[in-house]
Design goal:
Number of domains: 2
Largest sheet: 6 strands, mixed
Strand content: 25-35%
Helix content: 10-25%
Number of strands: 17
């Protein structure tokens, strides 16, 4: 399935030699060796190349807006990202940390499809929450991610959002298979910032409270140390 979709997305496969920066994706303790200090490296690969196990290998990139691209796409914008929802659901439901020891320094996540192995790197986190899905009841709603609408979402936890003052980026818990943390897309983060309060007005510290649906929540900031360590 993935190879067919990739073939329709790429006219020509070519050897790609490009500088890669160490990704900022969060990894588990067991996989910290794949998240070493950032530096420029050069990687030589061919999209669809055969591995020693006679499987095909593809390489992808997720930007800070949650858009998925072939890693060697020259132009990365909305017109060139993958938008087919069935493909995105299929891809992200199989996405997990790369623990197989191959390409893990540059592509810390993989999404396996049968005998195809898809290696993934990202600008920040592999999960990027793009919008709120409001529900009929009084619940906070759900956070959708990865461009698949309500087919990929998690319950919204207003008490557990966390903003890093140094960057202004906002994070929210994500499923464990993705590393437990996801970035909130900038447009949604700007909207959320309107409802954040800072204790004693000190904006050099993370927000202390967040008002959502008329309820004021004291923020746990349980993700702050994790986010800070990643920076």
């Amino acid at each position: 399935m993935l190879s067919f979709l990739v073939a329709t997305h790429v006219v020509k496969m070519s050897t790609k030699i490009l500088p890669l920066f160490k990704p900022r994706c969060l990894l588990s303790q067991a996989n910290l060796k794949c998240n070493t200090q950032k530096q420029v490296r050069f990687l030589n690969y061919v999209q669809g190349q055969s591995s020693e196990r006679n499987s095909r290998e593809y390489f992808y990139f997720i930007d800070h807006q949650g858009q998925l691209f072939l890693d060697d796409a020259r132009i990365k914008n909305f017109t060139s990202c993958f938008k087919e929802k069935d493909f995105l659901v299929f891809f992200f439901k199989r996405l997990k940390e790369n623990n197989n020891g191959k390409f893990c320094e540059d592509f810390p996540y993989v999404s396996r499809c049968g005998r195809e192995m898809n290696y993934v790197r990202c600008d920040d986190t592999p999960v990027v929450f793009t919008h709120i899905i409001q529900e009929a009841d009084s619940s906070p709603g759900r956070l959708a991610f990865s461009g698949a609408g309500d087919r990929l979402s998690v319950p919204f936890e207003p008490t557990n959002i966390c903003m890093l003052p140094q960057t202004g980026r906002v994070y929210h818990p994500a499923p464990a298979q993705y590393g437990g943390i996801g970035l909130i897309r900038s447009s949604l983060a700007i909207e959320f910032s309107k409802f954040m309060d800072f204790e004693h007005g000190d904006e050099s510290l993370p927000p202390s409270h967040f008002t959502w649906n008329g309820s004021k929540h004291k923020l746990s900031n349980v993700l702050f140390d994790v986010v800070k360590a990643r920076e």
